[in-house]
Amino acid sequence: MKLIIIGAGPGGYETAAEAAARGIEVVLISDGPLGGTCLNEGCIPTKALCAMDAPDQERKHAVVEQLTGGINQLMRNPLITVVQGVASLGCGHCVDVRADDGSTLHFDADAIIIATGSVSASLPIPGAEKALDSSAMLELSEVPERLCVIGGGVIGLEFASIYRKFGSEVTVLEFCPNILPRFDVDLAKRLKASLVKRGIKIETSARVTAIEDGAVRWSKSDKEFETAADCILMAVGRRPNLASLNLDEAGIEYTPRGIVVDENMQTNRPGIYAVGDITGGMMLAHVASAQGRKALAHIIGEACLIDMSVVPAAVFTVPEAATVGLTEEECAGRDISVGKANYRANGKAVASGEADGWCKVIADKATGKIIGAHILGAHSSDLIHEAAVLIALGATAGQAGDIIHAHPTLSEVLLAAVRGV
Ligand code: NAD
């Protein structure tokens, strides 16, 4: 069997490795470096910055290089051919690639997976081009005195935290009434309070109207404001990277939100699949990888039991925030029980000076099953996975509360919340 994968981010390269491990011949086409946005200008370089006290481009490049080296090694498989260039779909299962040297290559296969990711979105406002996107932000070597972040979502808040730690005066302008609009409101409000306590200014319900040299103009409740800034980050979301795929001529259904797929990640054209940000769902590296596994399983006719409703997500602010399952708002109209616990009542958190944190667990009242968990605080991006396992395996709060947790550990915060349900 032969498979073409377009895009070499987590959805692309991980699926290529998995397919090759099953004896499938893979052509992996990419117009950028292996690893995609996640590894080259997203998750990984951001986490490198999170671990620094000042921007150190050399260290950031070293981290990225070490990991891309690993992927290059992984792709050095006799069953995988990596092709550098821009792919566009043809008829049947054909793909043309405009290679970097100007030549055009032609490939066909039994199946195609599109995994071309997403690009930064911007606002249609005067001066928008003066703002940096997250990729440009990662290249800064100097710390701006005043940073204005447009968008209080995941990217905006992570950079706000990083640059606050580096010493910038940071203002975040968020359009919605709460930061992280799709997250549990309790969690978002507590995170906001923690960030404000650390000196980040956050304006919610703020409508940005223009960017001028050195300032962002915005309005709130019909009043006009101006925030002076030496650096402006635009972080108002990402949009699927649909360009150059030739989707119209190939007859593949899509919307501005992304390529339309079914539960097997198959497009309206049998044998052609799409995974990751290009499908416009949750734009997370681990979702792309899981969707790649789903698509591959369908291609080779195997069952795939990944539960796409249990997706942990983490925001690498200071403190970290993490979530899995349903938010309390998503449970509206459903009978639920909620348990909460604070880091300041946890021995390990207090002893290690990380007492700023909180955890909430939501269970269905009728069945007792845990259906959501939200954690703010140190190491919450790791702790959330215990809740993910409990939800995925259908554990009740009673069962979870009877599992012995080692003392003194932060995991006891989740245990305390579970017992409070
Ligand atoms: P996002 O959707 O998380 O946040 C965008 C924010 O901008 C929202 O809060 C939105 O209300 C706000 N906004 C929209 N229009 C605005 C306007 N006119 N003025 C002010 N604010 C406005 O998007 P993002 O932060 O750009 O991230 C893009 C994607 O990448 C997301 O899907 C995110 O989950 C993903 N990502 C994930 C991680 C992680 O998992 N740690 C890290 C980075 C990015």
Apparent shape? globular
Radius of gyration: 23 Å
The portion of residues assigned to helices is: 25-40%
Number-wise, the strands total: 23
Mean pLDDT: 97
Query: How would you name the CATH homologous superfamily of the largest domain?
Result: FAD/NAD(P)-binding domain
Low-confidence stretches: none
Kindly report the CATH topology of the largest domain: FAD/NAD(P)-binding domain
Q: How far do the termini sit from each other?
A: 51 Å
Structural class: alpha/beta
**Proportion of beta-strand residues:** 25-35%
CATH architectural type of the largest domain: 3-Layer(bba) Sandwich
Sheet with the most strands: spatial strand order: 5-4-3-2-1-6-18
Number of domains: 3
CATH class of the largest domain: Alpha Beta
Provide structural commentary.
With 421 residues, this protein is of the alpha/beta class. The chain folds into three domains: 2-120 and 238-300, FAD/NAD(P)-binding domain, CATH 3.50.50.60; 128-234, FAD/NAD(P)-binding domain (3-Layer(bba) Sandwich), CATH 3.50.50; 319-419, FAD/NAD-linked reductase, C-terminal dimerisation domain (Enolase-like, domain 1, 2-Layer Sandwich), CATH 3.30.390. The chain is built from 13 helices and 23 strands. The strands form six sheets. Strands 5-4-3-2-1-6-18 form a seven-stranded mixed β-sheet. A five-stranded antiparallel β-sheet has the order 19-20-23-22-21, sandwiched between helices. Strands 10-9-8-14 form a four-stranded parallel β-sheet. Helix 1 packs parallel to helix 9. The longest helix is centred in the first third of the chain and has 19 residues, at 57-75. The protein binds nicotinamide-adenine-dinucleotide.
